[in-house]
Specification:
By secondary structure, the protein is an alpha+beta fold. About 30% of the residues lie in helices and about 25% in strands. It is built from 10 helices and 15 strands. The chain has helices spanning about 55-60, 65-70, 90, 105-110, 120-135, 235-255, 260-280, 315-335, 410, 425-445, and strands at about 10-15, 85, 95, 145-160, 170-180, 180-190, 205-215, 225-230, 290, 295-300, 340-350, 360-370, 375-390, 395-405, 420-425. Helix 5 runs antiparallel to helix 8 (about 315-335) and helix 7 packs across helix 10.
Length: about 450
Amino acid sequence: MDLNSSPSSSNTIPVVSTFASPFDGTSPPLNVTSSSSSSVRKPISLWPGMYHSPVTDALWEARSNIFERLLDPPKDAPPQSELLTKTPSQSRTTILYGFSSDYILREQYRDPWNEVRIGKLLEDLDALAGTISVKHCSDDDNSTRPLLLVTASVDRIMLKRPISVDIDLKIVGSVIWVGRSSIEIQLEVTHSTEAEGPDVSDSIALTANFIFVARDSKTGKAAQVNRLSPETELEKFLFEGAEARNKLRKMKKGEDIRQIEIGKVNRLEALLSEGRIFCDMPALADRDSILLRETRLENSLICQPQQRNIHGRIFGGFLMHRAFELAFSTAYAFAGLVPCFLEVDHVDFLRPVDVGDFLRFKSCVLYTELEIPDQPLIYVEVVAHVTRPELRSSEVSNTFYFTFTVRPEAKTTKNGMRIRNVVPASEEEAHRILERMDAEALQGGMSM
């Protein structure tokens, strides 16, 4: 769906590199497009509570009048007393990457295959979605306390075609649906030089849907958000689709997970049968299969203050970036060929991650689909754990699901490419595989 319906220039934010060119002595210009910027305000690079990147710097600079309130929210101020009704166009925001003319910016985003680094793009999508949610929920009243807005989940991020780093890029997004305390935001990535054609949908390279929830910044309880009034036929269509997805999510939460259908039991047994052979008779196991546990990778880090967002928590885009890098490495080690990202199937933000947390990312290949030999699908799960050794505790903070295939040029360098089936060795692993298979099938059915 095309969200590029002539965004106003005030909602278009140019992105510039965050490093000075080594070939001259000048710093990159500040891309201030908001008339409310003040000459006495500290430079964006000195603002606390912010994960710095070219996009976050640009977003903060352009919307400084909104975000300055969030740096030190008035705790004793009353909450918003009256809900406003806003249109999608009021939150619609566009950011422009001038890759064709900004060498330094291009180098910040380039991957080894001369395409945009997907991990950095995931950071930018989360930052833009957060900005859009703040714009929709703002009441423009400095006497009330602002809402605390957090990423609840990512429904799907789908890459439709490769994104070259040599061509200018555009991301445009807006609120497409609101509930009582939740907001859905849709983002679209296009090559901006192609977006002037008659059918902009043909130039869309990536789509993403983020869900944010609102909390009262003082009590921490769920808070109501401004209403949404879609105006155009497209906006109404997007609203209805998001409403249907929200109902489906509630139905799924209400299901009794203890009720397992006979068909699911049979599928469970079929998955486990090959795994038992690996465990009990490894010499006779299928050489075209591999145990799930043999595909695992892991890394860990201590969360630093430089990675926090405006609310003092670790920036969700940073977590997605780190999870993507591990998922990519997992698919690479599994396939033996350079993987090609296709989509983020789903991300759950189950609990916040704080500065100083010991965070462990654990990944594995859940399963593969080999029906199309030239485009095998590799489904990777990444689970983030907040670990507290002094308390002997470990809690899941995030789950991420990614889909990869193999880069076309990589397949030509290796004759007899073989992608293995993945089999579980335990009932818990088999359940995880089936749940993801069913979720993927459900997503596919809804997107048709």
